[in-house]
Write a structure and sequence with these properties.
The protein has helices at about 5-15, 20-25, 35-40, 55-65, 80-90, 105-115, 130-135, 140-160, 180-195, 220-225, 245-260, 275-285, 335-350, 350-360, 370, and strands at about 45-50, 70-75, 100, 120-125, 165-170, 200-210, 210, 230-235, 240, 245, 260-270, 275, 295, 315-320, 325. The chain is an alpha/beta fold and about 375 residues long. The two termini are about 40 Å apart. Belongs to the polysaccharide synthase family.
Amino acid sequence: MSGRSAGRRQEEYVHMLGVSPAHILGRPAEPVYGEEATRLVAGRRVLVTGAGGSIGGEIVRQLSRLGVGELFFVDNDEYALYSLQRELSGTALLDDSHFVLADVADEAKLNRVFAWARPSIVYHAAAHKHLPLLENSPEAAVRTNVLGTAVVLQASIAHGVERFINISTDKAARPTSVLGMSKRLAEMVVADRAGSANPGTTVASVRFGNVLGSRGSFVETLSWQLATGRPVTLTHPAASRYFMTIPEAAGLVIEASVLAQAGETYVLDMGEPVRILDLIQRFAALSGAPEPRIVVTGLRPGEKLHEELFDPSEAQRPTAHPRIREVDVAENGAASWPAIRSLCARAATAHPDEVRRAMAELLAGADLAVLAS
């Protein structure tokens, strides 16, 4: 079977079982917006990076429903932009200048885009997110997740963006992986730049856990394994994660953007953590598939048995939204422009182990014993 045919077949398997992420979690998935969120985006010019991804794409869809004025879509994946335009307009000619092919770490290109688009609000969802891949290629995490965040934020500040929202992950809390370290550094970049932002620019990060049904996620793999009769792979029988649906996550990101002030990190309420084995069994039962054979593969380097939403050093505070809490991310100069540029230069040529150590050195609050292993 060709790679292209195999890709189509896997997409078919994902939808074959007919079980939605909301059914798996057993709670409503549709977001409910407050009046302030609607007023914030209505009629505004909004730019979304990573617009072709699962979270970025859902933010785009929800913004469209909320009456956004003009949308700009930035992604470095041609097919993702093609698919997004086809969904939004029914065509996929890719001749609309609102669809921008760009690497978020490309400073010159991003500044040209911002000068032309003049967005009022930026949702920065572009990121590399697959933990094992980034363990082997930490330079990619540094370039996209760390430098990319700094570049998009600097462009936002330079071009008078009123509100900048960085999408983070629970793996940034007490990070034990390259992914977690890179996203923690990205949160620190946002905290660091908050003090130098224009008076009219507010910035913040939004942190949440695993999103069921996102592209390349656990549910996609599970669906394919069940539909094809293969064993289901599980890293550890006791492993648990925080889960939410794509609409939930995107809706709460938009709600959190109302709260943004000065570089703080907002943490979304994801309910209680779910044991992955329980989720597998519930998915199989709902789909009518036979009880699967489980193959335990072991935790991968950098992977936690149980994820956390907060670092032990972080003081949590409630916000005006009942499902959003707030923390201040410590900033000690590790995320300054010189420090980030030095890390990027080192990452471009160093061995992966050296890159991991360099990232750990910038994170005094990280678990160095784990990171050094």
